[in-house]
Design goal:
Blueprint: E1 7-12, H1 23-31, E2 34-37, H2 43-47, E3 52-55, H3 67-79, E4 83-88, H4 98-107, E5 112-115, H5 120-128, E6 141-145, E7 159-163, H6 169-178, E8 186-191, E9 199-204, H7 205-209, E10 219-223, H8 235-238, E11 240-245, E12 257-262, H9 272-275, E13 276-277, E14 287-290, H10 293-305, E15 317-320, H11 323-331, H12 345-354, E16 361-366, H13 372-380, E17 384-389, E18 409-412, H14 415-424, E19 433-436, H15 439-449
Parallel strand pairs: 1-4, 1-5, 2-3, 2-4, 6-7, 11-12, 11-18, 13-17, 14-15, 14-16, 16-17, 18-19
Antiparallel strand pairs: 7-10, 8-9, 8-10
Helix pairs in contact: 10-11, 14-15
Bound molecules: S-adenosyl-L-homocysteine (SAH).
S-adenosyl-L-homocysteine is lined by residues 15-16, 40, 88-91, 94-96, 119-120, 123-124, 163-166, 190, 192-195, 217-220.
Length: 451
């Protein structure tokens, strides 16, 4: 079959820390039309890009694809003439099935290139201060799969890294001992390498054998004398892990902190409360204007939280502003009726003016700050504008829940962030330092968390 003008990039996303993406990958991800990403790719990393994003991983709550379906999907988008990024955790050619994907692309005459990524072993090694090779101690390294356990290989290498070891630590240790490894062999299990919740266990195979501990995925095991170099106070451990709810403050940008984002909504305007409404009568709304993709996302959360069916908006024209908002709407199974090219408030108003949109009842889902001028200008065109407060209902999926056990500090940038945070987390452990942007935020925090 003829190849189309489409093009595929097979890209490694690195082990988790979003900054461990290559410059090349970052540039390409900004340029492509579609990104197909797997479950090891962090949400924080993928959020930055505007392409249509298709999740192909295997999280229990989300739809996922089998490998054949992924291959078909990549080729389908390429044939449509799109630039496609296939984004995988770590490196695509280290237990990443990148080889199978390019074989499929070759067979179908689709042009592609490959952008390597930092593989988990390298991420884990650097972020735990365990060198994979050390002069006179370990002079060879092997990467192996630890799955299935009964077929585990023990190659003749000084350092062995086992990927895919999500079972109990004791089972892994027993399997390795059975294969001839001595009980005194040094071993380290690294979970969530390079992420805020990185955790390491270091010891010997013998110690591990008696530990009935579940290995939390993603995790890998490093085996060898190089583990002797492990110290409890390694550089990444010493960094403060801060959770930022809302917009960050300057002091967290220094690199001294490991930042975890809690994507909640901002509002600084005191007018906001008065301007926001709830949906009383979906049928009466003639137009739904989504200023950005977050408006779409939170709008659907709002509907779910309030038992409103999207089909109740029978008379409503769905208008996303910009390609990211359109893509987000499509993800929820709604074809946009009218897409604005503009993404800034003033440009949207200009387009609305040019299209002669007037006399409409416009509903604007509003997760972010309220731009009063925007509202006034829409109203000046003889439209009745309602801002829909969707902020309180922004619940994150289970998979994205942040594990507070690893957090040293939390920063709230506004009272609405405290509210949205409190909807998910009832308590904040005592040992966590809490900072707030201003007096009103502080007040909201003391009220909601009774501190
Ligand atoms: N292509 C990937 C590996 C995919 S296989 C790479 O090059 O890293 C999936 C396995 O990778 C997981 O089971 C785990 O063993 C390992 N892995 C991926 N990310 C990891 C992380 N952040 N911490 C520890 N192990 C990780």
């Amino acid at each position: 079959m003829e190849s189309s003008a489409g093009y595929v990039y097979i890209i490694g996303a690195g082990p988790g820390d979003p900054e461990l993406l290559t410059l090349k990958a970052e540039r390409v991800l900004h340029e492509v039309d579609v990104i197909l990403y797997d479950n090891l790719v962090s949400d924080e990393l993928i959020e930055q890009f505007d392409a249509l994003k298709i999740y192909t991983g295997k999280r229990k709550d989300k739809h996922h694809f089998e490998q054949d379906a992924i291959n078909e999907e990549i080729v389908f988008h390429a044939r449509e003439g799109r630039k496609v990024a296939r984004l995988k955790g770590g490196d695509p050619f280290v237990f990443g099935r990148g080889g199978e994907e390019i074989a499929f692309l070759r067979k179908h005459g689709v042009a592609y290139e490959i952008i390597p990524g930092i593989t988990a072993a390298h991420g884990a090694s650097a972020y735990t201060e365990i060198p994979l090779t050390i002069r006179h101690i370990s002079s060879s390294v092997a990467f192996c799969t630890g799955h299935p356990l009964d077929k585990i290989h023990v190659p003749d290498a000084d350092t062995i890294v086992y990927y895919m070891v999500a079972s109990s630590a004791s089972e892994v240790a027993k399997a390795l001992i059975k294969k001839g490894k001595e009980e005194k062999t040094r071993v380290a299990i690294v979970q969530n390498a390079t992420r805020y919740n990185q955790k390491i266990f270091a010891g010997t195979l013998g110690e591990l054998k008696n530990k009935d501990k579940k290995v939390v995925s993603p995790a890998l095991i490093i085996l060898g004398e190089n583990i002797k170099e492990f110290i409890e106070e390694y550089w990444f451990e010493k960094k403060k892990k801060v959770l930022i709810a809302g917009d960050g403050a300057g002091k967290y940008e220094s690199g001294e902190y490991v930042v975890v984002r809690y994507p909640c909504n901002e509002s600084h305007s005191t007018e906001r409360e008065g301007m926001l409404k709830t949906v009383d009568d979906p049928v009466a709304e003639t137009m739904l204007l989504f200023p950005d993709k977050y408006a779409v996302r939170y709008f659907f959360n709002y509907l779910a939280g309030n038992n409103v069916d999207v089909r109740d908006f029978v008379n409503t024209v769905f208008c996303p502003a910009g390609i990211a908002a359109s893509a987000e709407l499509l993800k929820h199974g709604v074809l946009p009726d009218l897409c604005f090219d503009a993404v800034t408030a003033s440009d949207i108003v200009m387009e609305i003016t040019e299209l002669g949109i007037t006399g409409e009842s416009i509903l604007v889902p509003c997760p972010g700050s309220v731009d009063e001028q925007f509202v006034n200008e829409l109203a000046a065109l003889n439209n009745s504008v309602t801002l829909l407060d969707v902020s309180v209902h922004d619940t994150l999926g289970e998979a994205e829940r942040i594990d507070l056990d690893f957090i040293d500090e939390i920063y709230f940038s506004s009272p609405s962030c405290v509210r949205s945070f409190s909807a998910l987390y009832r308590e904040i452990p005592e040992n966590i330092v809490v900072m707030t942007a201003d007096a009103r935020t502080e007040e909201e925090y003391t009220t909601l968390f009774e501190r």
